[in-house]
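Could you help me review a protein record that somebody else here produced? My question to you is simply how this chain folds and whether the tokens agree. Thanks in advance; the entry in question is below:
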Amino acid sequence: MKTLFEIVLFEDCGNQWSLSRPMLSMILISEEMFSNLRAQILSSQPTDQQQRLSLCFDKLMADITRSLDQKNRDKFSNNLTRFRNEFRTR
């Protein structure tokens, strides 16, 4: 999960859609791991950016349910694209 987030956030990744499917599955399987990873990523960012980036993480999971149905996966994919764009805006 960490590697996928690093690719999405810090590398030029043209196709987040292909990464979003396994990312959602891993987040749903281990919400604790996702919470820990979120905290780790936030703490590695400048202090003045952490609150804004925390909101990005909140938006990533906005309206996401604990299911892998098509509508939920599509919503997560859209949220992931928005998350990446907002996270990378400084």
In short: Residues 2-88 form one domain. The chain has a mean pLDDT of 94. The chain has five helices and no strands.
